[in-house]
Amino acid sequence: MPRSSTVAKEVLAYCTSCKMDLSHIVVAMKGDKIVKAQCKTCNKEHAYKAPKGAKEPAKKKSKASKAEQTSSSIEAEWEKLMTSHKDAPVKGYTMKGKFLLGDKLKHPSFGEGIVSRLIYPNKIEVVFREDVKIMIYGGQ
Question: Which residues lie across from 76 on neighbouring strands?
Answer without folding.
Answer: none
